[in-house]
Amino acid sequence: MPEVPKVVVIGAGIVGTSLADELTARGCTDVTVLDRGPLFATGGSTSHAPGLVFQTNSSKTMTAFARYTVEKFAALHHPDGWAFNPVGGLEVATTPERWADLHRKAGWAAAWGIEGRLLDPADCVRLHPLLDRDQILGGFHTPAVGLAKAVRAAEAQARQAISRGATFRPHTEVLDIVHSGGRVTGVRTQAGVVDADVVVCAAGFWGAELAKRVGLVVPLVPMAHQYARTGRIEPLVGRNTELAEAGLPILRHQDQDLYFREHVDRIGIGSYSHQPMPVDLANLLADTAGEPMPSMLPFTEDDFAPAWQAARTLLPALGDSKVEEAFNGIFSFTPDGFSIMGEHRDLHGFWVAEAVWVTHSAGVAKATAEWILDGAPQVDVHECDLYRFEDVARSPRFIMQTSTQAFVEVYDIIHPYQFRSALRGLRTSPFYARQQELGAFFYEGGGWERPAWYEANAAVAQQLFDDGLACPPRDDWSARYWSPISIAEAHLTRERVAMYDMTPLTRYEVAGPGAAAFLQRMTTNNVDKSVGSVSYTLLLDETGGIRSDITAARLAEQRYQVAVNSPLDYDWLARHAPDDVTIRDITGATCCIGVWGPLARDMVQPLCPDDLSNEAFKYFRAKQTHLDAIPVTMLRVSYVGELGWEIYTSAEYGAALWDLLYAAGQAHGVVPAGRIAFNSLRVEKGYRLWGTDITTEHQPAAAGLEFAVRTGKDFVGKQALGAAPRTLLRSIVFDDAAAVALGKEAVYADGGCVGYTTSAAYSTTVGRTIAYAWLPARVAIGDTVVVDYRGTRHTAVVHGDPVVDPQMTRIRR
Ligand code: FAD
Ligand code: THG
Question: Coiled-coil stretches, from where to where (predicted)?
Fold first, then answer.
């Protein structure tokens, strides 16, 4: 790519205009933005968005995107008036569940640095006098948020870009992407080809169709959403000027899937309370023919009737009015509610920035500009990465089902362990039938069914509790999708031995003459060790941020088995792999049982012709051998921190392997154990979970993973390492044995919020909940911090980690 690339942006909506601004602000001034429509009310979603910007999101990244958007929009100038009106935002609760959940949301706000306050009903009504006080239990007020005038914000950003050299061309439809030799070279329009080194598809809900032309799946579904304006509302008359339009906070009534804003003396009502209405783009032109814009469908009045009822109940002043203008507007929904960003892996220079709300637009544009120009965005964007989807999640059926579900749940209270009920059972391990017989309760992850605990262990659990094993009571929220049986499973892993289904652990065969050199260059630790070695090592991005933590088992001179965290790891490795290296996903073709616990050796040795003693088969070594008649690969690795092995075999032997081990384990009291026990044990042991505890936002030193970095060799990201970390990932141990945390709780010290938890789990070994927390480096081991769990404050002590077995005696015996 030339020093200053020639960039074409498809789409002059809020994303395309903001991106042009961000690129040109960084000196990348050869930018041409093409739009099919007129400027700047192009006819896309931006043209009619009512522009409510709420910032707080369970995702730190999405919150950061929204925060940047507000900062940026507030500073924009437009001749017609404001681009952002910071009227504040109020989210009200009309049910006890919502009121409790607003406490959780207030925690996210504090953790991610958004000013906000929980208010009683009287204060809510003081802020928003149209509210019926008797309907509400309380509200969450965030003063900095407000209304974006999306078209003005788009134009103001476009003008800034134009002043630096960018060009905007209206009425120019992109018909195709032009490329050669695996690189984009331009786009084709009716007026001919426009040359480009970089093409960014910011075409809103049309983007998936365009991307399809270059073989890219962009999992989004265009969906209609109702927006209505009332007639004049008496109490509003005279309150707002035509210019300001609004003075009351923007309002959310999520229990009824509604939001509200003022339009001078009228109220605008947005509703998600109707059936999902996915849009078929093939019919769109015909369906929108009578409408002012190609992103507007005719209003369907019957769908709005319940919303109107609910709106009048919350805001009785609407009573005498009626809906005067309304439409069904179209915008994108995705399977997980996150945006879609990144570069096509097989077509260099083709980027997407799709499924972006006005709310997150400037943040997404900034990150995209950094990514294109600097090689990596400053903010961690893994939740939005184009390549985060498993193959199964890229099927049209899956995209439609999950995106539709995302629409239905857009304002719902979602528990962190609540998994979808549709499209289950897609990926099951060879042990699935056994797990069902044993009464497994399944979580879902990456399409896999993953036992969370086994009801078959209920009796042994009860016996342990009767004998005195602690099992603190849980509140309703934390008791959901959870069972006390998991405590017994964790306990028995430390005391006896347990079997864990590790099949969903994604693994690749990395092979070829260049395999060792490739992994040396891509990862931080020394992996060029003897055949039979296993290495724990990190993938860093160019900025030294942790892209993943992986293990690499050298099974032959030119062949490694690499176990990773997500499809993003395949993407990263595949982008960098030289011709003499192949990367093959072997997850589904193989399976794995983790056998861990002090009795693991007693249980497995009799099945194995090879010596499994500590001397003969050392910690972090691999062996290809047999258990009874079954060929297996054993890795002496344990994410739960116990003696034992990950035992792999190919899928056809899976059921036999389970039966063999289960039968052999009976004499040793083996139990099958699930994800909850697994998570608890790894948190005790101080092991990080990528994506939850650590991301690209963190360098190894901050994450406590410097031990896996060898500075004596070269690797991607090395140049960027060095600065002393300002925040550190710490283990904290709660004082109260009954205190619970689930992760993403705000952490306080010295009276202010200083950080947030990531993973949290009840540890049966220490009889307390343990969490990881990102805390300022000045917070020392032994200090007390306060954790806000949905409004309940718990004290916890910062602990050196790992909390359990820092000497590694359990694991190395
Ligand atoms: P768009 O604004 O759709 O821009 C895409 C552009 O690409 C269009 O101008 C289109 O003409 C152009 N284009 C497409 N294909 C081509 C092609 N082949 N060649 C050339 N040009 C092409 N978000 C919020 O944050 N807050 C809200 O309160 C809010 N309310 C909403 C209410 C409604 C009723 C709707 C419909 C949406 C709402 N949204 C809201 C969502 C928000 O409007 C969109 O997510 C956002 O505007 C998308 O911006 P964009 O730039 O990606 O897409
Ligand atoms: N097993 C295997 N691969 C994996 C995981 C796994 N890859 C992805 C993910 N899980 C990686 N996470 C970890 C985290 C910690 C360890 C292993 C995988 C671990 N750490 C030792 C420690 O910190 O004490 C490593 C010590 C060393 O480097 O010698 O065991 O679960 N196969």
Answer: none
Distance 554 CA to ligand 2 centre (A): 15
Instruction: Give the three-state DSSP class for 287.
Output: helix
Interval 265-322: pLDDT, tens? 999 999 999 999 999 988 887 888 888 888 999 999 999 999 999 999 999 999 989 9
Instruction: Give the span between the Cα atoms of 585 and 229, in whole angstroms.
Output: 52
Is the CB–ligand 1 distance for residue 357 below 6 Å?
yes
Q: Which atom of ligand 2 is nearest to the CA of 811?
A: 24
Spatial separation of the C-alpha atoms in residues 252 and 229, rounded to whole Å: 16
The DSSP secondary-structure symbol of 496 reads S
Q: Using one digit for the tens of pLDDT, what is the confidence trace for 466-503?
A: 999 999 999 999 999 999 999 999 999 999 999 999 99
- CB-based burial of residue 445 (10 Å sphere; 0-12 exposed, 13-18 middle, 19+ buried)? middle
> Domain locations in the chain?
7-196+220-333, 433-502
The Cβ of residue 462 has, within 10 Å, a number of other Cβ atoms equal to 15
Torsion of CA 798, 804, 809, 813, to 10 degrees: -150
Q: How far is CA 271 from the centre of its chain?
A: 25
Ligand 1 neighbour 407 (Cβ under 6 A): no
Distance CA 630, CA 653 (A): 7
Q: Which of 10, 22, 46 to mutate to test the pocket of ligand 1 (most atoms within 8 A of CB)?
A: 46
How many CA atoms does the CB half-sphere of 777 hold within 13 Å? 9
Catalytic residues: 225, 259, 549
Q: Which residues contact 730 (CB under 8 A, 6 or more apart)?
A: 772, 773, 774, 775, 779, 781, 798, 799, 801
Tokens representing residue 159 in the block: 């003008």
**Is residue 153 classed as helix, strand or coil in its secondary structure?**
helix
Q: Are 234 and 130 in contact (CB under 8 A)?
A: no
Distance 536 CA to ligand 2 centre (A): 6
Q: What is the pLDDT of residue 430?
A: 98
Q: Is 674 in the pocket of ligand 1 (CB under 6 A)?
A: no
Ligand 1 mutation pick, 272, 277, 358, max ligand atoms within 8 A of CB: 358
- Looking at the predicted structure, is the pLDDT value of residue 12 above 80? yes
Please say whether the beta carbons of 355 and 220 come within 8 A.
yes
451 lines ligand 1 (CB under 6 A): no
In angstroms, the CA 648 to CA 591 distance is: 6
* Residue whose CA is at the smallest distance from ligand 2 atom 23: 687
- Stretch 588-601: mean pLDDT, rounded? 98
How far is residue 364's CA from residue 11's CA, in Å, rounded to a whole number? 15
Mean pLDDT of 172-197: 98
Nearest-Å Rg of the Cα atoms of the chain is 28
Task: Give the residue, by CA position, lying nearest to ligand 2 atom 19.
Answer: 639
CATH assignment, 7-196+220-333: 3.30.9.10
Q: What is the pLDDT of residues 559-586, one digit of tens each?
A: 999 999 999 999 999 999 999 999 999 9
Which atom of ligand 1 has the smallest separation from the CA of 259?
28
Q: Dihedral sign, CA of 277, 278, 279, 282?
A: negative
| Residue of 686, 691, 690, 793 whose CA lies nearest to 731 | 686
SS3 567: helix
Ligand 2 closest atom vs CA 686: 23
